[in-house]
Every structure is written in structure tokens, then in C-alpha cells.
Amino acid sequence: MPKVSRRHFVQVASGTLATLGLHGTQLLQHRKVLAQPTSRRLGLVIGINAYVDAPLYGCVNDAILQRQLLIHRFGFNPRDVVMLLDQQATRQGILDAIEDHLIDQAKPGDIVVVHFSGHGSLVHDLDPICVNPRTGEGMAGTLVPVDGTLPRIGEAREGVVPDIMGHTLFLLMSAIQTDHLTVVLDSCYAGAATRDDVRVRAREGGEGGDRITISHQEKAYQDRWLAHFGWSREEFVEQYQQGVARGVVLAATQNHQLAIDEQLNGFVAGAFSYRLTQHLWQQDGTPDHVLAEIQQQIPENYRQQPKLEVAVGSDYGQRPLYFVENPNAIGHALVIEQEGDRVRLLLVGIDPGTVRAGTIFVNPDSQRRVTVGTRDGLIAIGQTTGSIAIGAVLTLGED
């Protein structure tokens, strides 16, 4: 197996929750001992706002919301959900995390979820697998790491980029030793930095053409994996063209569409990722069902249609999402801090715009009630009597 280096990954670092209005000293604490599932559950969640050329604003929120969903709704152990945010999500950091946390640890039957929110791009592939029949060019979709800034040459940005190609992602998925794999991608594959006053998740000049080419480092990395599998180039092309390597891929867009970084009710998040996590907090579902529901919720003017791909010959589109048969109960808010009778909530499974002074949330286990006083974006401040566990899941109560 190709290895570059082994590093320690921090799940939640100081300042991680700043985007949601929290301070570094107010990190989530998990007081409940979670039951160990029969199969191990591993997550890798990546969110990048801090691009130099075209910063985004909702990707870190996506990552935080996805991590809380995996832990509190789908029973992942917090220690097993690695989160890479902003400067942690370099090309090398992402590849190391996939290798060390997922490829080295996952065993057959384990459940693995990978989530990426950030810029996407189309780049010129000098050694293409797929060629555009109209132009004769070889273009490839990529994920843009935080260090994927294009060099500026004159007035334009162009040159070689350290992106992670879809071809590389296919090889890495092939190396993860479980079919219970779900990859969520909330990024563009083409486009510009803005459109109609809506920010989209594509790097400046993201359409590619001859101005943007993939690095030789990326091709060398692919060659090392091909040697690991013992695949010839022809065998790789055949495998790649059949479909996804393993499990399920949920993409925010079709191949040539733009993914929206959406201004919502006092906060920013991915139009796709936010609706996905909201839906899964409120009800169970299969990939087929969930994507159909989300498609109806995304505004038509976004011109963004989510895409589902499953392993060839599988029924994974009709299996429970994330391959978790019995998720925890539904929820609308999480307790993230308590000081005396004052409680801070993260709103996860409810439209924040419907939460106002006097809204009541209830913890089904303890029957503790929290009455909201104020709300700012995804954070609500309320009052309760008695203690309530950090990480407790609340549901909407009656006024």
C-alpha cells in the first residue's frame, strides 16, 4: 500500500465550532457512553472555507453538522469521526486521513462515511481516461484541497494544480475494505466563483481547459495504487468506466453543474448538505428516497440536481442510508453547553427560522424542557431546570 507519512488526526480542535458562534473552550463533550455497534463505524468529514482566491462560507458548517449527525443519529463513536477543517485539509492531509483512518482500519462489514464540502474543478488531463467527444480534450473532475490555489500568470490564473482527481478517489474507494461505504461530495465540477449573486463551490477559472492541468504528483500517486492492485492501465479504465468502486456516492450536482453555497436563515451551508442532514435528523430513508426528497426542496433557479451512483449490480440505492439499519431516534436540537439554568443548543433537524422566543424543546430520556429565549443562526439560547447532558438530543415540544 502506498504510504507517505503517518500523522495524528484531531477530531475537534480549538476554534472548530467558531463558525457556529461557539468558542474554542466550549467544545462538545460526550457524557453518554455510546453502545459499541457490531460493526465499526468510521467517518472522515472535510470542510474547507479558507481558499485564498475564492473563499467559501458554508463548508465548515456542513462538516460540523455532518459529524454531529453521524455521532448522535447514526451511532458513530466520536473518536472514530475525523474532521479536517480549512488548513488541516491540504492535499497531503486529506490523502493521509483516507489512508490512515479508513484504508488501514476498515474491515469487511464495517461502515464508512466520507464527506467533502469545498471547491471542485475541471482540469485538463494530459493523460486522459475519458475524452470529450466534441472537443477531443481530456477533462477530469477534481476536489480542490485548501492548498489548491492556482498560480497567477499575468492577469489570469493558470498552471498546474495539486487537486485530487475523481480517478484517484476511485482508487482510494477500491482500497477501503468494506462495501458499506458512502461518499458525500458537495462541490462543483465546473463554473466560476459567483453566479447571479449566489456563491458556488468552484475555484476561479474552474472550467479548466488548457489553462489548468493536473500535477505529475497526482499521476504518480495513481500509478502507485495501480501497482498495489496489480492493474494495468487498460484494466483501470475498464473498472472506472463501469461505475463507482464501492458502496454509494451522493453528489450535490450532476457532472457539469454548480453546487450552491447557500445563505440561509442567519448562517451559510451547502444547499445539498444542509438539506441532507436536516432530512436525516427527521426521518429514515434510502439513498433513492432521500435524493428524490432533496431534489424537490432545492430551488429551481439553482439549477442543481443531486446525483446518486451505487456499485454496479448492487441494491444499495434501496438500502438504509449510510448502511445503518437502526439509527437512533429523530431529533431537532443538540445540547452543546449548560451554565446554571442557561442552555445553548445547536439546531440540527429543524428549520431555524421556525425557532423563536418561547419555542420548547424536550429531552425524551429525562423529560427536561428547554424554553428558547433567543436564536442566532444555528444556535439557540434557552433556559431549563436541573441538569441536562451535553450531547443530549432534544425534540420539539408543545408550547
Relative strand content: 25-35%
Give the termini separation. 58 Å
Largest beta sheet, briefly?
A: 6 strands, mixed
**Oligomer designation:** single chain
Strand order of the largest sheet: 2-1-3-10-14-17
Mean residue pLDDT: 84
Q: What's the count of strands?
A: 23
Report the principal-axis shape.
globular
Q: Supply the number of helical segments.
A: 7
What is the string of SSEs from the N terminus onward?
Answer: EHEHEEEEEEEHEEEEHHEEEHHEEEEEEE
- From the alpha-carbon coordinates, what is the Rg to the nearest angstrom? 21 Å
Summarize this entry quickly.
With 399 residues, the protein is of the alpha+beta class. The protein is built from 7 helices and 23 strands.
Break the fold down into its secondary structure elements and pairings.
Elements lengths: L40 E7 L11 H15 L7 E5 L5 H13 L7 E7 L2 E5 L14 E5 L8 E2 L2 E2 L1 E3 L2 E2 H10 L5 E6 L7 E2 L2 E3 L11 E3 L1 H14 L3 H10 L5 E4 L8 E4 L4 E3 H12 L4 H11 L9 E4 L22 E7 L2 E6 L12 E3 L6 E8 L2 E5 L9 E4 L3
Parallel strand pairs: 1-2, 1-3, 3-10, 8-13, 10-14
Antiparallel strand pairs: 4-5, 5-9, 6-7, 11-12, 12-15, 14-17, 15-16, 18-19, 18-23, 19-22, 20-21, 20-23, 21-22
Helix pairs in contact: 1-6, 3-4, 6-7
